[in-house]
Design a protein that fits this description.
The protein has 17 helices and 15 strands. The protein is α+β, with helices and mostly antiparallel strands. 40% of the residues are buried.
Length: 580
């Protein structure tokens, strides 16, 4: 007679040590990663750790007071949330207060300085042709004489920065003014980014000479080395008008510019990324991908600039009135891609890419107040929450000890393993995705204790049912597992689905509750499959549990077990002898 083949359950029963080793290795790896990052505790939200609260006040342009409305304020809140969360500050809060104020709460331990810059920056981006430029305070004149520059690659769609024209030969004031006026007249057509109804630039009107003279006077008086002067450079200039601006080309050197009307704006940028250019030696840059219409505008603009002499073959990338880069081109750049180079480090490049990706604010905001939030109130609430959690956990353990006796040892160990996994993962999520533990998230972790304990109870009761049917412990464990497994998976799936829906449809702190609940539900499945089941399989081989000791929680007499299942033999027929 052929020996019966061992099934999948038999194989799994014979090697439970592998599952236990796997989960212990995972805990050790997560713990090592936690100490390697230096964050040995979960990052706390603003309600527990305190932080910074910023009040921003909306300011409308003169004559556009109606722009401060509910729609624009809600749009600004959404953009600010995306910007701050793009920095990894996932527990930040952005909400309106009244008609003109927006409150931004940033948890402690995050880069609050960078976050302040992100939420307060309007991020209005324009591509303007350069008419004249010089180093501020350098004494050079803004003549359009040739300067050293490198060309743009039409294939790659990248423009490289032009050298400062500060060393160009000087020109007389008459020649300087004539050059600027001629350049403005040459660019007097309506901006490519403006609508067909937009009026032409000031230089094409009868008062064009006066406007040019005013612009030249502003340019001559502009000293970009002074922060107060830089902040007001170009104030009030519309995108369809020429303007003056400042830009930094090194750590301690500023250039001033006369710029023509905007040809392309930030709404034409589809995507922006911070990229480190190691091969070209350019360092950190910001790459941009234009929309279809933006690609056409950019190709047309660079095609016109390529015909000019330096510095009028440059286009300035202007962000909130400041020139962040002024590359020169030698041919039309098609393909819909461009690159901003400059004095970027990783932080500044990612910050600029973040603002360009999420768009410009519909309004201008100024900081009304910046205050530090104390964690005292949140600390008291956390203390109360932890006390409630400890009481709940103690009641669960007492119930397990009284009702399941020896089996409670397995349940308590499983709870400790689940707690270790939850703690290490939350500690690692702080520096990786910016997860911060707030009060609702703590509530989610406390609720998860009941979900995890419920999985143990389902499995233990299935094993007890098999013992009541008269089976010994080892086959009872293996026969109970498939049915208990299905019940546990269905129950955890429902809990995870509820957490996912809650995370999607809610905002703010409630998402912390949903995230923690979903995470602990997934960990419950991992613990039950890789720890609780293998551990019970191993202990079922020990005499204390296998013999049904009265304190094991698996005593057949206490469970009301039936007599053991035995095969009965049919009575054999009498053998007939020859004499019979």
């Amino acid at each position: 007679m052929a020996a019966p083949k061992k099934g999948r359950n038999a194989s799994a029963q014979s090697k439970p040590g592998r599952s236990l080793a796997l989960i212990l290795i995972a805990i050790a790896a997560l713990t090592g990663g936690m100490f390697a990052t230096g964050d040995t505790t979960p990052r706390l939200g603003i309600d527990l750790a305190g932080g910074t609260s910023i009040t921003l006040r909306a300011e409308a342009e003169p004559g556009q007071e109606s722009a401060i409305n509910k729609t624009n304020m809600n749009t600004a809140v959404e953009i600010m949330e995306r910007r701050v969360n793009g920095l990894g500050v996932s527990e930040s809060e952005v909400q309106t207060q009244g008609d003109k104020n927006i409150i931004v709460n940033i948890p402690k331990g995050t880069n609050s300085k960078e976050a302040r810059a992100q939420v307060g920056t309007t991020a209005k981006l324009y591509f303007r042709p350069v008419i004249a430029t010089e180093v501020s305070g350098g004494g050079a004149t803004p003549t359009p004489s040739p300067s050293a520059s490198s060309s743009a690659s039409g294939d790659s769609g990248k423009a490289t920065p032009s050298a400062s024209p500060s060393g160009s030969p000087s020109a007389s004031p008459t020649t300087q003014g004539r050059a600027v006026t001629d350049a403005l007249k040459a660019d007097s057509s309506p901006s490519a980014s403006a609508s067909s109804s937009a009026s032409p630039s000031a230089s094409s009107t009868p008062s064009g000479d006066a406007a040019s003279g005013k612009l030249e006077a502003q340019y001559a008086a502009l000293d970009c080395r002074k922060e107060a002067v830089r902040a007001k450079a170009g104030d009030g200039a519309k995108p369809t008008e020429p303007t003056v601006a400042c830009g930094q080309n090194s750590a301690d050197q500023w250039e001033k510019y006369i710029l023509g009307p905007a040809e392309v704006d930030g709404t034409d940028v589809d995507e922006a990324k911070a990229v480190f250019q190691a091969q070209t030696g350019a360092g950190w840059t910001v790459t941009m991908k234009f929309t279809d219409s933006g690609s056409k505008k950019f190709a047309t603009t660079t095609g016109k600039l390529a015909k000019n002499q330096p510095p009028q073959n440059q286009f300035a990338i202007v962000l909130d009135g400041e020139v962040v880069s002024a590359p020169s081109v030698s041919r039309s750049i098609a393909g819909g891609n461009a690159e901003i180079t400059g004095n970027f480090n990783q932080e500044s490049a990612q910050s600029l890419a973040n603002m360009l990706s999420y768009g410009a604010l519909p309004l201008t905001f100024s900081e009304d107040s910046v205050t530090t939030v104390s964690p005292a109130l949140g600390g008291e609430q956390l203390k109360a929450g932890l006390i409630a959690g400890a009481i709940g956990l103690a009641l669960v353990i007492i119930y397990l000890l009284v009702y399941y006796r020896g089996l409670s040892f397995i349940a308590i160990l499983s709870l400790l393993v689940s707690a270790a996994l939850t703690y290490t993962i939350m500690s690692l999520l702080g520096p990786t995705i910016g997860f911060a533990l707030n009060l609702p998230a703590v509530c989610g972790a406390i609720v998860a204790i009941g979900i995890t304990a419920d999985s143990f109870i389902v499995f233990f009761e299935r094993v007890r049912d098999e013992i009541r049917e008269g089976r010994s412990l080892r086959p009872a464990v293996e026969r109970a597992w498939p049915r208990a497994r299905r019940t546990i998976l269905v129950s955890d799936f429902v809990s995870f689905l509820a957490a996912a829906v809650l995370f999607i449809v809610t905002v703010g702190k409630v998402q912390g509750f949903a995230f923690t609940l979903g995470l602990t539900t997934l960990l419950d499945v991992v613990v039950v499959f890789l720890f609780t089941k293998p551990l019970l399989t191993i202990l079922a081989r020990r005499k204390f549990f296998a013999s049904g000791h009265s304190w094991s929680g698996l005593d057949p007499k206490r469970l009301g077990a039936r007599p053991p299942l035995r095969r009965t033999r049919r009575p054999s027929a009498p053998i007939e002898t020859k004499e019979a």
